[in-house]
Amino acid sequence: MRELVCPRHMCKVPLGKCMEWDIDEVTGERIQCNEKPVMSTTLYWCKQCNVPIYEESCPLCGEKGKYIATDIRPVFPEEKILLAILLEKDDRKVTELLSDMEDKATAIAGAISKLQEILGGIEL
Question: What is the reported pTM?
Answer without folding.
Answer: 0.42
